[in-house]
Amino acid sequence: MSARRHIGFIGVGAIAEALVRGLGAGGELAAGIHLTPRNAATAARLAAEFAYVTVEGDNQAVIDASEIVFLAVTPQVAEWVLGPLTFRPDQRIVSLVATFKVAKLRPLVAPAHRIFRAAPTPAVARRMGALTLCPPDPEIAGLLDGLGQLIQLDDEADIDTYWAVTGLMASYFGFLEAVSLWLSRHGQDASAAAGYVAATFHGLGSTAETGAKGGFVQLIHDHTTPGGLNEQALRELQAAGWTDRIGEVLDLIHARIEGRAGLADTLPRADVGRS
Fold first, then answer.
1. Which of 56, 93, 136, 155 gives the lowest tally of CB atoms within 10 Å of its CB?
2. Residues in the chain, pLDDT under 50
3. Domains of the chain, with CATH numbers?
């Protein structure tokens, strides 16, 4: 971005914090970042760490100061938070709200009409991982470029599909915890076990990234010796329905993102507020 821009965040949760940190990790940012005062401790910490971050007095002040506005509120409070706010026609709106389609956002941010959806993961704080953007836009892409592997998508249905995969982050760490606990049950120091598991799967993740273009079947083959330990483990997990269950869970998450789940929303109300 050649000219200094002003970027606002309505909501300062984990993903918003990761984006702010990632944007600053590459050096001096040619933009000013304006944060909502909610989640005051996080906002104050970011303002103390980064000279270009300002905590505004309320949500409307964030919008008034910004040309690009990131919506980082939870779906449960999005309408309640955004409804009273006044946007401008020239603003770009980037929604991080998984279950809100552009059509649902449009009346909430009118007269702003350039609306985008983005799905980063917490690893963007370290400029790692992946993030998606829909629809493609040179300015927004230029802002996000370098935070991770950026995938730009034309069809909103496609970003919903990719977004579903981000629902497996906690499950991934649950898998690592199960492996670490197994080592501990067999007499290994818990800290050493956790470090070993983290390093092992970090290495596998790096291997996956370098070999992903050809798909993962070849990597499975490369890490499986006929009659060996990896062949046995994969066979047992497949027989237990482990791989099938992953697809079934993703189907449920995808249905929820697309509004097809038909499930009661029981998630706790986030402390975002209308301020």
1. 155
2. 1-2, 263-275
3. 5-154 (3.40.50.720), 168-257 (1.10.3730.10)
- Over residues 195-208, the pLDDT tens digits come to 999 999 999 999 99
Beta pairing partners, 8: 34, 69
Compute, in degrees rounded to 10, the torsion defined by CA atoms 114, 116, 122, 128: -100
In this structure, what token pair is assigned to residue 173?
């760490």
Q: Alpha helices, DSSP H only, in 9-101? A: 14-25, 40-49, 59-65, 78-82
DSSP state of 145: T
Per-residue confidence (pLDDT) for residue 261, from 0 to 100: 60
Distance CA 43, CA 49 (A): 10
pLDDT for res 1: 39
Query: How far apart, in whole angstroms, are the C-alpha atoms of residue 59 and residue 56?
Result: 7
State the Cα–Cα distance between residues 20 and 108, nearest whole angstrom: 24
Is the pTM higher than 0.85? Answer: yes
